[in-house]
Amino acid sequence: NAGVTQTPKFRILKIGQSMTLQCTQDMNHNYMYWYRQDPGMGLKLIYYSVGAGITDKGEVPNGYNVSRSTTEDFPLRLELAAPSQTSVYFCASSYSRGGSFGSGTRLTVV
Amino acid sequence: DQQVKQNSPSLSVQEGRISILNCDYTNSMFDYFLWYKKYPAEGPTFLISISSIKDKNEDGRFTVFLNKSAKHLSLHIVPSQPGDSAVYFCAGSNTGNQFYFGTGTSLTVIP
Question: Would you call A16 exposed, middle or buried from its count of C-beta atoms within 10 A (0-12, 13-18, 19+)?
C-alpha cells in the first residue's frame, strides 16, 4: 500500500514550457485534490475530483488543467509555465473529508 | 482573502509541557475542521478533525477545541515531545470538498 505517489519530486521548467505532474493513489479513494503551497503560505486548492470523470475548480485554477479518467490517477497539467507557478505541489486523496497527501513536487519556473 | 488564519508563525515549548496552537476563521459556514502536521520535504499528515456539532475532540495526546461563537479553534498537545516539532496547519471546510488552509505554525519542542 503506497498511499499517494507523486512524480516527479523536483522539476525545473523554462517559461512557456508545459508539463504534467503525476499523481496516483492505491487506496480506492473517490476524492482527489491538487494543492499548491507558496513560501510562507498555506495550501491553496487548485482542482479537485469527486470521482472518475468528474473534476472541479478550486481557489486557484488558472493556468492548470486536470483529468480523472480512472479512480487511481489524477494528473495536473501546466500549459505555458510562468514564474508565478513556482511552488510546491501536493496531491491528496480521501475517502471522505480530509485526505492523505503525497510528498510533493517542487517546481521552479525560470 | 484568507478565510483561515494562524497568526503565530512559530511556537517554542519545553518537552513535557503543553503546546497550544491557535487558528481563527472568518467563514461562519465552515462545518468541519482539520489539523495537519508537516515535516520538511514531506506531505502534510492528517492529525485530528472536528465537526462543528462538537466543541472538543480528543485523540491521545492531541485535543482540538472549537469555539464557534468566536470562530476559533485550538490544538492542544500534552505532553509535548521533540518528535512533535513540525509545521501545523489548520483547515476549514463548508462544502466537504474544498478545504481552506491557514499559513501554518512551526512548533519546536525543546528537549
Answer: exposed
A51 Cα to chain B: minimum distance (Å): 12
Q: Please determine, for residue B17, whether its predicted confidence score (pLDDT) is greater than 80.
A: yes
Give chain B positions within 8 Å (CB) of A3. Answer: none
Query: How many residues does the structure list for chain B?
Result: 111
Burial of A50 (0-12, 13-18, 19+ CB in 10 A): middle
Pick from B6, B101, B105, B106 the residue to mutate for testing the A interface (most A CBs within 10 Å): B101
Q: Mean pLDDT over residues A73-86, rounded?
A: 96
Give the lowest-confidence range in A69-83, B73-87, B91-105: B91-105
* Count of residues making up chain A: 110
Q: Would the pLDDT of B96 be above 80?
A: no
The answer to whether the Cβ–Cβ distance between A42 and B98 falls below 8 Å is no
The rounded distance, in Å, linking the Cα atoms of A14 and A109 is 5
CA distances (Å), A48 to each of A59, A108, B23, B109, in order? 10, 23, 24, 35
pLDDT digits (tens, 9 = 90+) for A46-77: 999 999 999 999 989 999 999 999 999 999 99
CA distance A40 to chain B (A): 6
